[in-house]
Amino acid sequence: MKVLLLFAHPEARSLNGALRDVAVAELRRQGHEVQVSDLYAQGWKAAIDRADFPGLAANERLVPAAASKAAFEVGDLTQDVQEEIDKLRWADVLILQFPLWWFSMPAILKGWVDRVYACGFAYGVGEHSDKRWGDRYGEGNLAGKRAMLIVTTGGWEPHYGARGVNGPIGDLLFPIHHGILFYPGYDVLPPFVVYQTGRLDEAGFEATAEQLRERMRTLATTPPIPYRRQNGGDYLIPSMELRPGLGAPSRTGFALHLRDEDAGSSR
Amino acid sequence: MKVLLLFAHPEARSLNGALRDVAVAELRRQGHEVQVSDLYAQGWKAAIDRADFPGLAANERLVPAAASKAAFEVGDLTQDVQEEIDKLRWADVLILQFPLWWFSMPAILKGWVDRVYACGFAYGVGEHSDKRWGDRYGEGNLAGKRAMLIVTTGGWEPHYGARGVNGPIGDLLFPIHHGILFYPGYDVLPPFVVYQTGRLDEAGFEATAEQLRERMRTLATTPPIPYRRQNGGDYLIPSMELRPGLGAPSRTGFALHLRDEDAGSSR
């Protein structure tokens, strides 16, 4: 398979840097082709702004989605964005690796999403009718590919548990898993999360590295998070609400968007 | 009161720009002092990196939390970050205004959080003991102040409802409300959310503007989202899990972190 790993940590000599090297080495050992987008090393521009749309007239009002759609259609995106889109089309598997900062991704990685997810490519795709609400949530230009997160946090695992003060990790990651990865079509694998990074000694690192290697060896076979497809009949159109009767009564919030046959958390 | 409004849209001639002007005018009409941090206009640097820590030796490994703590303690933060911290100390109310991009804030605003929330200021505060796990989640340097979001989205309101395909808006915003605002001490007011921005006509804008003015008039009196204080006795230490018996059986996920006397959603 072809694997694209997005790396979003400012220090190569970090736990994240070491885990990236572990993942890439194991993937290559398995015979996969690997590309790494090291956002800090690339000097990635995080904020989407007028400079993203060279075709926009000087006095024209910037409407980001409209400008993105126009630039995507005529192939007028900036070169850095176009290169990342080409990598996404090339890759069978996308891995986003980042430290969890303020319960989400670092700004530089969010800026990769904001800029690379062009209108007409990652959203604004497909027809709207009484049977479909565009190609999204399980359909779209990235359907048939797989994605997963590698995330590190200084916090303790129980703090991110079902009753932990931070909120459950699966729910905290839902806006990324479901909203950023499932949306343009990816099958999303359960995340690889490393907790209490400040206390990881050499033995702990070795155990973590081996777990990560195992996840790299099972990329093709790990069952994805069983999100419901938007256009599979489970949602009313145009309200896009889950049909009455679907979703176990005990389920609320994000967990409603898991298929009924799959019990458990929203991870 | 003193109000700081953080504005994170690249175009002044946008719906967001118009709503910002409405909010600021109403706040001034009420006699409040207002400062606006217009992140795009300020050319805000989004990605935290070595340049944030001039005191770091050239060959020293960058550990962001440690570098931030060291710089904060000796007053060696960069001037742009220090100015924002001064504004946060000055303000009684913080408003974050942004378009919802990929179910979260734009990268430039996430980069404001990543950089301005210094260690020792917004986190890493207070003592750890068998009675306290630091000053966070309702305590900390920003306790006693209020915060709220003004958010716009092209999506329809039912798509963000209790059973909507995007997930409930209150849950999608939980990582910001609870993880970014409640964490360093803010009382968090319910968000002001504008849906279907692409279809807002003149009458719709006027109605929205009037609702926003009303929210600006009631900043001091609107009840905050009733999150549980971490050190108020509801959580076990050190696992930081909600004590057995707390949280109605029907509640799961983020909603567990609302006080039991307050029924309803996690908004």
Description:
The structure is a homodimer of 267-residue chains. Chain A has 267 residues and is of the alpha/beta class. Chain A has a single domain (2-224), classed as Rossmann fold (3-Layer(aba) Sandwich), CATH 3.40.50. The first copy, chain A, contains 7 helices and 6 strands. The first copy, chain A, has helices at 15-29, 64-73, 79-90, 107-116, 169-172, 174-182, 202-217, and strands spanning 2-7, 33-38, 93-99, 146-152, 187-188, 192-194. In chain A, strands 1, 2, 3, 4, 5 and 6 form a 6-stranded parallel β-sheet that branches. In chain A, helix 1 runs parallel beside helix 7. The first copy, chain A, is globular, with a radius of gyration of 19 Å. Residues 263-267 of chain A have low confidence and may be disordered. At the A-B interface, helix 4 and helix 6 of A face helix 4 and helix 6 of B.
Oligomer: homodimer
Helix content of chain A: 25-40%
Task: Name the poorly predicted regions of chain A.
Answer: 263-267
Look at the structure and name the CATH superfamily of chain A. Answer: Flavodoxin domain
Could you say what the CATH topology of chain A is called?
A: Rossmann fold
List the helices and strands and how they pair.
The structure is a homodimer of 267-residue chains.
Chain A: E1 2-7, H1 15-29, E2 33-38, H2 64-73, H3 79-90, E3 93-99, H4 107-116, E4 146-152, H5 169-172, H6 174-182, E5 187-188, E6 192-194, H7 202-217
Parallel strand pairs in A: 1-2, 1-3, 3-4, 4-5, 4-6
